[in-house]
Write a structure and sequence with these properties.
five-stranded parallel sheet, 199 residues, Rossmann fold, alpha/beta, single chain
Length: 199
């Protein structure tokens, strides 16, 4: 049986990872494989740290879409893949990779998941998390400072100069291609039911 591909998109801090983790708990880790677009940032070893830091990571060109497409094709053929590991504190790929095995459900999640046609062609279901911008910004600040070793000023500057404008230009419009738009946790139940109907 071909894996069921579920795409989860939405702005930064909208809860994509949170929803993915709930799905894994509900359907079981043995059933679900998760692919995060953040792992596919293009490596830039030729650039200095300051140059890498100024990269617009919210623009589609920051994603290694060729490698991601190749990996999705391999998973659809029930082949194992090796996902890059990305260090957000240095803005570079690590030498180590994560081996991922194909499973019954494959989640593809990231801010640009629903933007790329290269990804959409694999997706059986496309979900967009539509959460208020203020809530998303607060979540982003907490995450980047606590989990990614960033300082507050750099997170704020990045949000103002790239995160917000890229959201308006690329991410928000991608909502139109969603099969399901979720704005709160109460709507998770209907989402779970739709997944079960596709299995």
């Amino acid at each position: 049986m071909t894996p069921l591909f579920i795409g989860i998109g939405g702005g930064t801090g909208s809860g994509k990872t949170y929803l993915s983790e709930i799905l894994i708990k509900k359907f079981g880790a043995e059933t679900i494989t998760r692919i995060e677009l953040d792992c596919y940032y293009i490596d830039q070893p030729q650039k200095s740290f300051l140059e890498r830091q100024s990269t617009n990571f919210d623009h589609p060109e920051s994603i290694d879409i060729k490698l991601l497409k190749k990996h999705l094709e391999q998973l659809s053929q029930k082949k194992k893949i090796n996902i890059p590991k990305y260090d957000f504190s240095t803005h570079s790929r690590l030498k180590k990779t994560n081996e991922i095995s194909p499973k019954k459900i494959i989640i593809v999640e990231g801010i640009l998941t629903l933007y790329f046609s290269e990804i959409s062609k694999f997706l059986n279901m496309k979900v967009f998390l539509d959460v208020d911008a203020d809530i998303r910004v607060i979540r982003r600040l907490k995450r980047d400072v606590k989990e990614r070793g960033r300082d507050l000023d750099s997170v704020i500057q990045q949000y103002l100069h790239s995160v917000r404008p890229m959201h308006n230009k690329f991410i928000e419009p991608s909502k139109k291609s969603a099969d399901l738009i979720i704005s709160n946790e109460l709507e998770f139940v209907s989402f779970f039911k739709k997944i079960k109907s596709l299995l």
